[in-house]
Amino acid sequence: MQFCDDCGAMMRPRDGEMACSACGASQSKDPDRAEAFVSTESQTDGDVIESSADADFEGKPTADDITCESCGNGEAWYTIKQTGSADEPPTRFFKCTECGNRWRGYS
Asked: What is the CATH number of domain 62-106?
């Protein structure tokens, strides 16, 4: 893995060089690590979970013990993330299955 000297973002191979995925700067591949580079161009997106705003199913668990403040629907997808320190409870991020409204819930 190679990182951009200008902004620190991850570089990706493009036309024989490494191009920054954020600022577009390009550099030659690090010759000491050239054999270690692995291309992911052959990967497919078949196992990617749909998460667009208009998706009917996001592959996430649903909660039916909450109510959307926007439309009153009683079901929402959710994800759990540890947003504070390890000794604090995690935060649940909800998205309404009907209107797409997003909110967070604290335990």
From this structure: 2.20.25.10
